[in-house]
Amino acid sequence: MFNVPIDHVMVPGLHISLGLYVKLFDLLEADLQDIDVKLQSYLESVLSEGEVSKDDLLADEHLGRFKSYVAAVDEARALDDQADAIEDELEEQESQLAWLAYKDGVEDAMAEVVFDEACSMVQDLYQQKESLRAKADAIRTKASVKKGQGPLTSQMDPVLQEYSGRRQEYHG
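Now predict its structure.
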């Protein structure tokens, strides 16, 4: 190709350094995001077990950033409680439906109508339960820690600013 003498070639040190820095920065950010998500899961288990009160948790200056998530957990837990109540009722109705089928059979038209109505009620209860579970999951997902917004990950920008750095300089 080109006949360039070796003493006229220069290694692009700045570009290599910036590339390594960006790679390390991205790895750090990903690890902090993972820790934020694990912390969020731990907080949910702590709240559900009652080890710490919600007020104590929200009073903490660092964990208070999970305020919206804690509120979402409460809302999702209320929906889960409703779904649990429906599930209990569903089990009761299924048992009664099985007993009805065993005891009376479905030979005559009246018994078949009653059986079909009971089946419809069981299906409706099942759909209500699944709907409540889906809403609870959607609430948890929506309130989940977003990338770069957790208590640890969000502290990266202030640290960069202490050293006169800005995120966009490194991420082009």
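The mean pLDDT is 78.
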